[in-house]
Amino acid sequence: MSQQRPPRSLYDLLSSKGLAVIMFGLIAAFTALGTFIIQFGSPEEYVAVYGRLFTRLIFATGANDLFHTLYFEGVLVLFAFNLFLCTLKRKFSLPKLGFFMVHLGMIVVMIGAAVGLVFGHRGMVWLDTGEQSARYLARAQTGEYPVELPFSVRLDEFDIHYKEHPERVLYVLVPGKTEMEQAALFAIEDGASEKIPSLGLNFAMQILPPPATTEIEATGSDKLMVGGDPHSSSQFDLDLDQLPNPVITLGDNMTVQPLKYIPHAMVDGEGHVYKQSDNPINPALEVEIRFEDQVEKRWLFAKFPGFGHKEVLEDLTIAFVKGSESSEPVERLKLTVTDDRGAEATEILPLTLDEQSSARFKTVTVVAQSSMAVDSYKSLVSVIDGDQEVARQFIEVNHPLVYKGLRFYQSSYRANSIGENTITGIEVVDDPGLWLVYLGFISMLIGVIWIFWLEQLIRRWARK
Amino acid sequence: MTNYYFTMIGLFVVGGGALGVNVIKSNRPLAISGVVLILIGLAIGIILPTMSIEQNSMLAIAYGIFSIAAIAFAANSLLQKSKLKIAAIAIAVTAFVLLTATILLAWFNLGRPPFQSLGETMIILAWCLTLVYLIFELVEKIEFTGLFAMICAILSLGFNYVYPDYSTRNLPPALQSAWFVPHVLVYFLAYGTLILAILSSSGYILAHYRGSDLDRVFDKITYKLVRVGFPFLTFGLIFGSFWGQVAWGNYWGWDPKENWSAVTWVVYLMYLHLRYVKGWNKVRANVFIILGGAAVFITYLAVSYLPSAASSIHVYQ
Q1: CA A392-A396-A399 angle, 5° bins
Q2: Which residues have a Cβ under 8 Å from the Cβ of A48 and sit 6 or more positions away?
Q3: H or E stretch at A394
Q4: What ipTM goes with this model?
Q5: A214 falls in which pLDDT band (50, 70, 90)?
Q6: Which of A357, A385, B20, B221 has the fewest Cβ atoms surrounding its Cβ within 10 A?
Q7: Which residue spans within B122-259 are E strands per DSSP?
Q8: Is 0.90 topped by the overall pTM?
Q9: How many CB atoms sit inside 10 A of residue B159's CB?
Q10: How far is B189 from A269, CA to CA, in rounded Å?
Q11: Residues A386-415: pLDDT tens digits?
């Protein structure tokens, strides 16, 4: 069968620079559009941002996952075809080496990406310290699916390094503005002074030493609060080491008695509260409430004041306030805000680690935050192939482990059941097209240098 | 203070426009008003650092010298004295050296490259812009206005005074990479070069419509600038992909900032190809340089305000 050459005009069209420019325009337009439309959002998000009509249009056209739509991929395929024909049209010569390297490089990158998309997998494996696994959960548009590894990986150790000093920052918030549009963000430093010209305010900072221990005790104890409005509610000190505590009388015919305390409470499927650990992760207090002839036992959760069964006394608001965990007194920020007219206001904010404290001034609210920022985290992972340990390496951000073409990246971490960060999240990438992508990129880099810089230099040199 | 900054930008735009028209068709009153407007803008610019206390004093001095260089360039555009121009270039070199020292000192003090926050990169942008301008002025021997370069540097540095920027002392894990410095540096060298190309392509369009012979000169300058800037843009894109692969196992994540950097790259690619397409190789091709400048602006600054920005791992907070 003789090969038929495409019609001259069609061939010319498909291999023209004009079509290339149109393809560039389409790729740029779609890519830009994909940044104006939220990708992979929930329907509610789309309705809130774009309204109902546009949301319907977005879902009908698949623009909520625009970069995987058939029409976008079609544009890329047509572009690759056009690029290929344009390259084919040119006759090779050494001065045109750059042209070939860039154009072929781009084609190779696209082929590599397609190979990775079709034949590759990408997913996560979560490993607790000492745990071993030979599979990971890969992600697809339709959901997750398990993929078997041709070997297994074991987490031997998980390390988190925090920065030497806590990071202390001060947010200055203007009413009506979101956190993203905040007026300013400063580092809290002793003796520093920051001016926000747009607000006409100056912030002078002074770090005060920790207060005496007695002051802390007064504010750091465990309490039971009864009533509605926090200002009018009554407070009762609790002694969690001596439970049950004595009966507390509330008015004429109501009593409350703290019965049990669980530092790390969990609720099972039937609503029963049980103890998970001794770490104060989810502190809960059981109280017995008596009102006239009614008796009710209720669990109160310090971190979830609204949670719990209210079978009998629905109107009664009762909350368990767990005192500060840190018995260590903390440093405080003395913040003096001065406006353009010289009016001054001062507030003192505690700089407790991993907590926020706020103060309100006339026109702004400030939030002081102190946290131990993570400096780095890494997982010591062993690869077991057959019966043998074939590799052992620390994986951290920017330092993946590569074995048999599979790549393992430090991606995330989480706490185990007792609140210790021992579980590592490792991203597993199986991309058989990656070497093609790299090859294409390197070819493009050399090609660009050749076209725009070397070619000119060689010409100049030849002229001389 | 924000008002002062934007008034300064407005004065530069109007004054620069007047000077641009003067370049095409000589008109002395127009040139004088252009220079006066720019000088008023610079006067506002000079008082910006004095309105903000506790700022880096070395940076403030560099900023002041940039302003003086700009005044010298503005005066030269009116008087066209070669000695004045040499003086202006010498002042610009001084400002550049001081800015280099400021950046190196910040690098030393922070113990990391000062390339992290928006404010820090604004300083890098001013540095790259001045470097590119000086190389083109001194090495390439291209008669090119330094006023625009100085004004861009002033606006870039002045941004820090209007929006004081806090940067954390340490880099987050993802930024602790050997790719960090080359990726950021090549991008800002590209941005600096391509921002200068906006001026020459605008000059081309103005000259073309006015029937001036200068259009060829401007076209040549634009192409030379793109020939320098586009490879840097390509390096930035590919270095970023290599980095993404090493850090997250993903050479391309369809992140809004990545997408806009691709759009920017494609727009300049369109310019490079349109130069060979009949009927599109003149004004239309040069319009793509201005569109490319807009794409650079979106990639660098405006991407944070897009609906998809919340999911981005790249945008400046």
Answers
A1: 80
A2: none
A3: strand A388-396
A4: 0.90
A5: very low
A6: A385
A7: none
A8: no
A9: 19
A10: 60
A11: 889 999 999 998 899 999 999 999 988 888
Share of chain B above pLDDT 90, in %: 49
Q: Give every strand in the sheet of A332-339, ordered side by side.
A: A193-196, A201-208, A332-339, A344-350
Amino acid letter at B83? K
CB atoms within 10 A of CB A285: 26
Expressed in angstroms, the distance from the first to the final Cα of chain A is: 54
> CB-based contact (8 Å) between B135 and chain A?
no
Mutate which of B160, B167, B169 to disrupt the A interface (most A C-beta within 10 Å)?
Answer: B169
CA B295 – CA B317 distance, rounded (Å): 20
Q: Which amino acid is at A245?
A: N
Which residues in chain A have Cβ-Cβ distances shorter than 8 Å to B276? 17
For B16, half-sphere exposure in the C-beta direction (CA atoms, 13 angstrom radius) is 22
Query: Do the chains contact at B231 and A434, CB–CB below 8 Å?
Result: no
CA distance B90 to chain A (A): 28
Q: What values do phi and psi take at A74, rounded to 5?
A: -60, -45
Q: Locate tokens 């369809």: which residue? A: B254
A379: which DSSP letter?
Answer: E
For residue A252, give both structure tokens: 């004429």
CB atoms B276 and A17 under 8 Å: yes
- Find out whether A111 and A124 touch, Cβ atoms under 8 Å: no
Per DSSP, chain B holds a count of helices (H) and strands (E) of 10, 0
Q: Which residues of B touch A376 (CB under 8 A)?
A: 173, 176
At residue B40, what are phi and psi to the nearest 5 degrees? -60, -45
Q: Which two tokens stand for residue A136?
A: 């990971």
